[in-house]
Design a protein that fits this description.
This protein has one domain: Amidase signature (AS) domain (Amidase signature (AS) enzymes, Alpha-Beta Complex). It is about 35% helix and about 15% strand. It has 16 helices and 15 strands. The strands form three sheets. An eleven-stranded mixed sheet has the order 1-3-2-6-8-7-14-15-11-9-10, with helices on both faces. A two-stranded antiparallel sheet has the order 4-5. Helix 3 packs antiparallel against helix 4, helix 6 runs parallel beside helix 7 and helix 11 packs across helix 13. The relative contact order is 0.13.
């Protein structure tokens, strides 16, 4: 590998990079240089980063190479020397964490989030923070602080959000491993429209103490990668109990890359809901999903189609929960900080602009519990619940005013693009977006899959089987 081009390096998975570093076929410094070279070439087209830690990362790469020189390969951590990125909603010690907000433009945390600290313990090297809309308030990735993040497959379009920068970074080789979050589809939407994997683990599988709502949480630390082995390694590195997150405090099994996922999944039952929660998908989005399901059926899975608006729930419950959470956070900020919020958020600052009814919120909590019961009833009969990850092609990145998506020829509100994904956030179940093909041979499409609590292994097995039946990791945007 020594002497190979930067292009050879940035196309490698994180697990492959670690193996080459440990075997001294490439150095961590060379890998880091190739990563920053790729960022320099690509990021100007997509705007996926808030800031980079070139100096800190280089110091860590030099140290990683010294550790390799002084130690046996089998004693090194799994991700030794591998570059990774962190969504700017998650705290990183010594590196700006702005949450996409001008009020925190100069905020530098003293400590890492638990997931970030565990990635460093696994040997990975943090290269930078990826873009997010302000406090993850939108499902597209743009903010007054950082500007617009663009889809690498078509820069006129959005990469989705709120983990848009993470999705773009992985899709373009600007870092094989991305720590993201998912509070309503935020890791899965960019995964679907950027052609990569996006895992929202079970609630609490990875501690998430940066989000302040420990008990009423809907958000998880999530993962974006190109390959199943990378997803496996990152989950194992970050998952596990910690006192900072009460939902994390239970026993958890490690996951692995299953050699024969078809055998492991044979006879598993899958319920396909084309119009999940009443969100009907455009036909061009359904076609690659249906083609993949036919391949899965031929591989031994049992697939049943639900022609109803399965698992319907009141989206207003979800949006009220998110809105009240944001209002609670913003009202704790100083007046100076509040003045720097996006003007669209200012109505949340005063009771005259936004009133939250406590009884209504508790009724929402009841509905959330009932939704969990209904999903559990389905999982008493099926192993997976699947649907299109998004219902239409992405909207424009530069849209002015209310954004719309086109479904069946009709221009519909942006909520109709993604809101069905929030079921897994309301109930805590794990979910993953898996690439399942392309529309018009140019834009990726994704399959959203939910599974029982703590069934990340089954989701990884399914992703591994899809990777064999319909490979995606060798497909790159033309940037």
């Amino acid at each position: 590998m020594v002497g190979q081009s930067d292009q050879d390096i940035f196309r490698l998975s994180g697990v492959e990079i670690a193996r080459l570093i440990k075997s001294r076929k490439v150095s961590a410094v060379e890998v880091l240089a190739a990563t920053f070279s790729r960022i320099d070439a690509v990021n100007k087209h997509c705007n996926a980063f808030v800031n980079l830690d070139t100096s800190g990362a280089r110091t860590q790469a030099i140290l990683a190479d010294q550790i390799v020189a002084d130690n046996a390969a089998d004693t090194l951590p799994e991700l030794h020397g591998v570059p990774f990125t962190v969504k700017d909603l998650v705290n990183t010690a010594g590196l700006r964490s702005t949450y996409g907000c001008r009020a925190f433009e100069d905020h530098i945390p003293h400590t890492d989030a638990i997931g970030v600290a565990r990635m460093r313990q696994a040997g990975a090297i943090l290269v930078g923070k990826t873009t997010t809309p302000e406090f993850a308030m939108k499902i597209t990735t743009d903010s007054l602080l950082c500007g617009i993040t663009r889809n690498p497959w078509d820069t006129r379009l959005t990469p989705g959000g709120s983990s848009g920068g993470a999705g773009v970074a992985v899709a373009t080789g600007m870092g094989a491993l991305a720590v993201s979050t998912d509070g309503g589809g935020s890791a899965r939407i960019p995964a679907a429209v950027c052609g990569i994997l996006g895992l929202k683990p079970t609630l609490g599988a990875i501690p998430h103490e940066t989000w302040p709502f420990h008990f009423g949480n809907n958000s998880t630390i999530s993962i974006n990668t190109r390959t199943v082995p990378d997803l496996t390694a990152m989950f194992n590195a970050m998952a596990g109990s910690h006192s900072s997150d009460p939902w994390s405090r239970r026993q958890r099994r490690r996951v692995e890359v299953t050699p024969d996922p078809a055998l492991a999944l044979k006879g598993k039952k899958m319920l396909m809901i084309p119009a999940m929660c009443g969100n009907f998908a455009d036909q061009e989005m359904l076609e690659p999903v249906e083609e993949l399901l036919a391949l899965l059926a031929s591989s031994g899975l049992e697939i049943e189609v639900d022609g109803t608006e399965g698992i319907a729930f009141d989206f207003g419950i979800f949006t009220e929960m998110l809105t009240s959470n944001l209002a609670a956070r913003f009202r704790l900020m100083t007046k100076e900080e509040q003045a720097l919020l996006d003007p669209g958020l200012h109505p949340l600052l005063e009771s005259t602009g936004y009133k939250s009814d406590g009884v209504k919120l508790q009724q929402g909590a009841i509905h959330r519990s009932q939704l969990y019961d209904r999903v559990e009833a389905i999982f008493s009969q099926y192993d997976f619940i699947v649907s299109p990850a998004v219902t239409a092609r992405p909207p424009p990145a530069d849209a002015v005013g209310a954004q719309r998506v086109i479904i069946g020829g009709d221009k519909l509100p942006l909520s109709r693009w993604w809101m069905h994904l929030a079921v897994a956030n309301m109930t805590g179940h794990p979910a993953i977006s898996i690439p399942c093909g392309f529309i018009d041979s140019s834009l990726p499409a994704g399959l959203n899959v939910m599974a029982r609590w703590d069934s990340e292994q089954e989701l990884l097995d399914l992703a591994g089987l899809v990777a064999m039946l319909k490979p995606w990791a060798d497909k790159w945007p033309n940037l």
